[in-house]
Specification:
The complex is a heterotrimer of chains A (159), B (783) and C (285). By secondary structure, chain A is an alpha+beta fold. Chain A folds into two domains: 4-80, Ubiquitin-like (UB roll) (Roll), CATH 3.10.20; 89-158, [2Fe-2S]-binding domain (DNA polymerase, domain 1, Orthogonal Bundle). Chain A contains five helices and five strands. Chain A has a five-stranded mixed beta sheet, with helices on both faces. Chain A is globular, with a radius of gyration of 16 Å. With 783 residues, chain B is of the alpha+beta class. Chain B has three domains: 18-26 and 465-621, Aldehyde Oxidoreductase, domain 4 (2-Layer Sandwich); 33-137 and 213-223 and 238-243 and 250-275, Aldehyde Oxidoreductase, domain 3 (Alpha-Beta Complex); 290-463 and 625-778, Aldehyde Oxidoreductase, domain 4 (2-Layer Sandwich), CATH 3.30.365. In chain B, strands 3-5-1-14-11-12-13 form a seven-stranded mixed beta sheet, with helices on both faces. Chain B has a five-stranded mixed beta sheet with strand order 9-17-16-15-10. Chain B is globular, with a radius of gyration of 28 Å. With 285 residues, chain C is α+β, with helices and mostly antiparallel strands. Chains in contact: A-B, A-C, B-C. The B-C interface holds B 120-121, 124-125, 128, 276-278, 641-644, 682, 686, 688, 694, 697, 699, 702, 704-708, 764-766, 769 and C 1-2, 4-5, 44-45, 187, 189-194, 196, 261-264, 267, 270-271, 273-275, 277-278. The complex binds flavin-adenine dinucleotide and FE2/S2 (inorganic) cluster (2 copies). Residues 30-38, 40, 75, 102-103, 107, 111-112, 114-116, 118-119, 121, 124-126, 162, 167-168, 192, 194 of chain C line the site of flavin-adenine dinucleotide (FAD). One FE2/S2 (inorganic) cluster binds next to loops of chain A.
Chain lengths: 159, 783, 285
């Protein structure tokens, strides 16, 4: 019953060949087996969105997938956002607009926003607000998160 | 000001905290692992109240990866989780929580056993197999219920507390009107996005016990641990990691903190515990649940003659680290910003079979503001006076400051309101909100059949209570500055605030200031970050220490540059002549090198005299509290068909005394305000009649998302700097949340056309719909 | 909150999947589709299946296509597929407006239409949609294949007509006549939350009066259902406040609402009245 599976996860371009139990969630495996602790766990039941990562282009809750399901998948996490020393426009915007306080929710919001803006750069504001309602933040009251994402979206469109 | 590169006080600079947080480099407690660590899983009671008959751990012990399973017997030498030293309330001690339940369980979630295993999954497997047999006892789910038995010979009414002053009976006898209200605040809590966590680690080589994952009050917790574990103060240290929000809840000592420490010593391996969300929602401190029977006596003009309040405080299963602090704060702050000649409060401090309660952001004050402002609205309605006018008639005037409220009870400290222009802020807020025009507009919309209304919540906050805090500042040979504080960071921007204060006083770029906090081994004292003390106390200490360093630097530079000290200034880390920045200069790094022990030349360090090098330790001491104050204004619209409340506008007007970083203060106010809206409209820890908690997932405990968060208008004023500290600092952490329940309740009452209708928070759609039905029944003519 | 151990299977074909399911079903083996309901349930250890048969890699299950007069939705078609209209006409628009009420964007990237039906949460939007529009479900097992009407498929709270060894391979929604108007209205307390109550209304117009009225209510009783009393109140009436009010009162009178600690039956009944009216109005406007 505790059969383990040999899988390869590609996280931010780096391949991790690991052996895991089927029941281990993608979030736990990214954090523990692959040591990328920027992806956080706030609820482990799909509500808070702090665990959001991008799997094969789609932002998903990594607490609601099993790592075995991602064998061969391309995963992106907050650690892969910056281009070397150069922060991603969204990271820059979050700092400029004071879109974080404790920062626990921040990686989830960043990956959600990146995932959406890369797929739909011209997304309307209503839709954007709808999507940003997917994740919870307990510190900021959201206003600055919205400001930061709008600003970064404009910048990403210009690029 | 912009010209001066090192004027940092009052500027909305970017935060020093942010880079690791946006890149994923930050280390929260769950992100920390020690080689060989074990994982703890707590087995919890599924009964609200009962006698433990047996605990069968035999199967768990045999499961793969399990190293140990403990019950109360295994830690019989460890006492209950203690109160903080400065709050020892003798009478409440029997109600403290044991680390693992002994004899009885008293709420669903009460820790009964602990499993230690190689992996969290295995620990959970084993925990599931522990069988607890319980004989159920009668359950008390409300502080309204008659008290029952806590333990043999000990009732659940742990205390009846009194606060009073003035001749309350005369006040009511002479009153033109007496208004009585029956009011309830719902049970909710901080619910930070990061759950709790703790890692215990014992370093046998150094005989050092470490707790990682501390927060809020590291030094107080260290003191308590020293007492509880009977260790040398220098042999227990606590360490803060990145902290994902505190809100009063995180950072208190809980049973799990003790367990990981004891286990680390006894099992000889680091022990890690990460709370899951379900545990958090049934075990971390909850708050706010009170039932008030409040009466106010007024004269014909609506002036308050006296307030008499009897209330029932639902403490939950045990008394935790704060003792009865929340109930005390409620009693002290009921009168708020108003002149109340006579006052009496009686609190029935009662235990129930629910999760224990303690402080949550604006503890006791969110509750008291709700009660007081409901009374104010009721006076306005009864006497037909405008709600702003009735408040103005009662506000303590600016020229009455400092204003002392002295209670009859010898053990209750006076409240000395330090400074404030309450009416001034109310005027400014009303003007900025467009109150007059708004009233007209709302009347028109109501006439058109809309359910819209406006409400007010006015309050006095408190913060920066002493006694003492200190900071140690050292400049290194590069000119970089290290500030070691005993403060704590819960995500509120502590590092940036301290760096700005230090940079301003010393004359350096704030980005060259590194702020250290939350490590008891680096500094032997510290007040942490509770009751919004950090900015005031630690900030003032940093200011003192930075000014001391500045003086040392200038003295040394005077010698090095052969210039009188009073002709020198420090700008951007360089000591220059005041009259001509082009003249000879010397950098702080150069001075630090010169002052280093063993250096030669003029101004060289003299280790014999206190701090060697360019460094100083400064303290700030006060016995007084600062009292910032605020006004919340709300406009709501109710959907008649569903009872759903939409907040159309909300303003937080707040006087912070002195704003170190307006952007961060605004952030605190807005965030707190949305949290307050949560407690006013969405969040509630509901229990059924068996004491089963019904909100143990985030699908049931409704934290507002962006969709539920209106834009908050913020008005920050600095009209009343505190006379109690050199920078005039007050505090901002709780000003966004304090009056939200009150303002929303007032607005909903106004919308319904029955200002007194709202008696209870939160105002869930079902409850609002009931209020609408009542209002319709009372006036059958309306649609 | 870590799931209990299970054996993981990842079949590639439907035949393999049903064969595996037949083998593991007696041992509480289950299908894993989007996992957006199953994984949280496992995290709370409210479900502890011994085997999971992951259908995400099964060939052909992600097909979404128009088959004659029916929209065929394969078992692996995600909620997100409906973000943009999947068919021309009002049905596509309707589905894209309903899908916004289901959970959140990242959850919709994984969760499936058929998974929602199999989960049979009383507050599921897709269950209400399938029932109101007379959808049909195809169940396959090693024993064969059968088609089940939506109303029969959903038997109660989280219970369906599926046998333990059956895989729901597709759901079909009939394409309604071109002139059909739709209105959907949901009440929930918080963004992305499950519905406290919801109503889906559909009708055509002939000679200025309502024909083929359908009125489905979800989140209120143990399973979604059409309310004949309300439909009768609409049939043959001219659309407008009077008919809508009558239908709203009929719907509220006909339902037998569930009760929980936060929501009284009475309140849910009120919501049905409100939402019925709003759904009918929105179909009209
Ligand atoms: C925070 C949150 C909010 C949500 N809000 C909503 C909401 O508002 N409305 C709503 O409708 N849903 C909501 N959901 C649930 C979500 O829509 C799920 O995606 C859906 O209920 C199940 O689909 P799934 O593909 O994820 O199924 P899974 O979780 O994989 O499976 C669910 C159940 O169905 C069975 N099953 C799945 N597919 C098949 C099949 N093809 N054949 C046989 N059995 C099968 C599984 O064995 C399991 O028992 C929410 C979920 C979360 C986490
Ligand atoms: S941790 Fe995944 S959604 Fe909360
Ligand atoms: S910044 Fe703390 S939870 Fe969002």
């Amino acid at each position: 019953m505790n059969g383990k599976h040999d899988i390869t996860l590609t996280i931010n371009g780096q391949a991790y060949a690991i052996r895991v139990e089927a029941r281990r969630t993608l979030a736990d495996v990214i954090r523990e087996e692959c040591g990328q602790t920027g992806t956080h766990l706030g609820c482990e039941h799909g509500v808070c969105g702090t665990c959001t990562v991008i799997v094969d282009g789609a932002p998903v809750r990594s607490c609601l997938m099993f790592a075995v399901q991602c064998d061969g998948a391309k995963i992106r996490t907050v650690e892969g956002l910056a281009d070397g020393e150069e922060p991603h426009p969204l990271q820059r915007a979050f700092m400029e607009h004071h879109a974080l306080q404790c920062g626990f929710c921040t990686p989830g919001f960043l990956m959600l926003a990146v995932g959406v803006l890369e797929r739909e750069p011209d997304i309307g504001d209503e839709d954007l607000l709808d999507i940003l309602s997917s994740n919870l933040c307990r510190c900021t009251g959201y206003a600055n998160i919205v400001k930061a994402v709008r600003a970064a979206a404009a910048q990403m469109r210009r690029r | 000001m912009a010209a001066d590169k090192t004027a940092y006080l009052g500027r909305s600079v970017e935060r020093l905290e942010d880079p690791p947080l946006v890149t994923g480099a930050a280390r929260f407690v769950a992100d920390i692992s020690f080689p060989g660590q074990l994982h703890m899983r707590v087995v919890r009671s599924s009964y609200a109240h009962g006698e433990i008959i047996s605990i069968d751990t035999s199967e768990a012990r045999l499961m793969p990866g399990v190293v140990a399973v403990w019950t109360a017997e295994d830690i019989a030498d460890i006492g209950p989780v203690d109160f903080r030293a400065d709050r020892a309330a003798e009478g409440l001690k029997p109600y403290r929580q044991p680390v693992l339940a002994k004899g009885r369980v008293r709420y669903v979630g009460d820790p009964v056993a602990a499993v230690f295993a190689e992996d969290p999954y295995l620990a959970e497997d084993a925990a599931e197999s522990v069988v607890i047999e319980v004989e159920e006892l009668p359950v008390i789910v409300s502080a309204d219920d008659p008290p029952g038995e806590f333990a043999a010979g000990r009732g659940t009414e742990a205390a009846v507390m009194h606060h009073s002053y003035g001749d309350i009976d005369a006040a009511f006898a002479n009153a033109e009107r007496v208004i009585a209200l029956d009011l309830r605040t719902g049970r909710h809590s901080g619910v930070p996005m990061e759950t709790r966590g703790a890692i215990g680690r014992y370093d046998a080589a150094k005989d050092m016990l470490e707790l990682h994952g501390a927060a809020k009050v590291p030094h107080r917790n260290q003191e308590t641990l020293v007492r509880m574990l009977g260790r040398d103060p220098s042999r227990v240290h606590v360490h803060e990691c990145h902290v994902g929000g505190g809100f009063g809840v995180r950072g208190e000592l809980y049973p799990e903190d003790i367990l990981v420490l004891v286990a680390a010593m006894r099992l000889g391996r680091p022990v890690k515990w990460i709370e899951d969300r379900q545990e958090h929602l049934m075990c971390a401190n909850q708050g706010r649940e009170q039932h008030h029977l409040a009466r106010v006596a007024v004269d014909a003009e609506g002036r308050i003659l006296g307030i008499d309040d009897e209330f029932f405080h639902d403490q939950g299963g045990y008394v935790r680290t704060h003792g009865s602090n929340v109930a005390n704060r409620t009693m002290c702050t009921i009168t708020g910003p108003y002149r109340v000649p006579a006052f009496r409060a009686v609190c029935h401090f009662r235990l129930t079979n629910k999760t224990p309660c303690a402080t949550y952001r604006a503890p006791g004050r969110y509750e008291s503001t709700f009660v007081r402002e409901r009374l104010m609205d009721a006076i306005a309605t009864e006497l037909g006076i405008d709600p702003i006018e009735v408040r103005k008639r009662n506000l303590i005037a600016a020229d009455e400051m400092p204003y002392t409220i002295a209670f009859d009870e010898p053990h209750v400290s006076d409240m000395v309101l330090d400074s404030g222009d309450y009416a001034g802020l109310l005027d400014k807020a009303a003007a900025a909100f467009g109150w007059e025009a708004l009233r007209v507009e709302l009347d028109r919309r109501r006439a058109d059949g809309e359910l819209v209304g406006a409400g007010i919540g006015m309050f006095v906050e408190e913060g920066g209570r002493g006694p003492t805090d200190g900071a140690r500042i050292a400049v290194d040979a590069n000119g970089d500055v290290e500030v070691i504080t005993g403060g704590a960071s819960l995500g509120q921007g502590f590092e940036t605030t301290m760096a700005q204060i230090c940079a301003e006083a010393l004359g350096v770029d704030y980005r060259r200031v590194r702020v250290i906090h939350g490590h008891t081994d680096l500094i032997p004292y510290g007040i942490g970050a509770h009751a919004t003390r950090a900015t005031v106390m630690t900030g003032s200490a940093v200011n003192v220490a930075a000014l001391m360093v500045r003086e040392i630097a200038i003295d040394a530079a005077a010698e090095m540059l052969q210039t009188p000290a009073d002709e020198l200034d420090i700008n951007d880390g360089t000591v220059v002549r005041r009259d001509g920045p082009t003249g000879p200069s010397v950098t702080l790094g150069e001075i630090a090198r010169r002052l280093a022990p063993g250096a030669a030349g003029p101004g060289q360090g003299d280790p014999g005299q206190g701090n060697p090098g360019l460094a100083a330790e400064g303290f700030f001491t006060t016995k007084d509290t600062v009292f910032p104050y605020g006004v919340h204004l709300a406009v709501v619209r109710i959907d008649r068909g569903t009872g759903q409340v939409a907040v159309e506008r909300f303003m937080v007007a707040y006087d912070v005394g002195r704003a170190v970083n307006p952007m961060m203060i605004e952030g605190q106010l807005v965030g707190g305000c949305i949290q307050g809206l949560g407690g006013a409209l969405y969040e509630e820890f509901v229990y059924d009649e068996e004491g089963q908690p019904m909100a143990v997932t985030l699908a049931d405990y409704l934290v507002p998302s962006l969709r539920e968060a209106p834009d908050i208008e913020v008005l920050i004023t600095e009209d009343a700097p505190s006379p109690l500290n050199p920078l005039g600092l007050k505090s901002a952490g709780e000003g966004g949340i304090n009056g939200v329940g009150a303002a929303i309740a007032g607005a909903i009452g106004d919308a319904i056309g029955d200002p007194g209708a709202v008696r209870r928070l939160p105002l869930t759609p079902g409850r609002v719909r009931d209020l609408l039905r009542q209002a319709d029944a009372a006036s059958p003519g309306t649609p | 909150m870590k799931p209990a151990a299970f054996e993981y299977h990842a079949p590639k074909t439907i035949a393999e999947a049903v064969a595996l399911l037949a083998e593991v079903a007696p041992d509480d083996g289950r299908i894993l589709a989007g996992g957006q309901s199953l994984v949280p349930t496992m995290a709370f250890r409210l479900a502890r299946p011994a085997h999971l048969v992951d259908i995400n890699g099964v060939d052909g299950l992600d097909r979404l296509y128009l088959d004659g007069n029916e929209l065929s939705i394969g078992a692996c078609v995600r909620h997100a597929a409906f973000h943009r209209p999947v068919v021309d006409g009002r049905l596509g628009l309707l589905l894209s407006s309903i899908v916004r009420h289901i959970a959140h964007y990242p959850i919709r990237q994984r969760g499936t239409f058929c998974g929602s039906l199999a989960q049979a949460d009383p507050a599921s939007e897709w269950c209400l949609t399938a029932v109101t529009l007379d959808g049909t479900m195809t169940a396959k097992s090693v024993r064969g294949s059968r088609t089940i009407g939506a109303q029969d498929f959903i038997e109660g709270i989280m219970t369906t007509a599926l046998a333990d060894d059956e895989l729901l391979t597709e759901a079909r929604l009939p394409i309604p006549p071109d002139d059909t108007r739709f209105g959907f209205c949901e009440f929930n307390r918080i963004a992305g939350g499950f519905a406290v109550a919801m109503v889906l209304a559909a009708y055509g117009l002939k000679d200025g009066v309502i024909t083929r009225p359908r009125l489905g209510v979800g989140g209120v009783e143990e399973r979604p259902r059409r309310i004949p009393e309300a439909e009768q109140a609409l049939e043959g009436r001219s659309p407008g406040a009077q008919a809508f009010r009558a239908a709203s009162a009929a719907a509220a009178g006909a339902v037998d609402p569930m009760e929980d600690i936060n929501t009284s039956a009475d309140y849910r009944r009120d919501l049905v009245a409100t939402l019925t009216l709003r759904a009918l109005e929105s179909a009209w406007s």
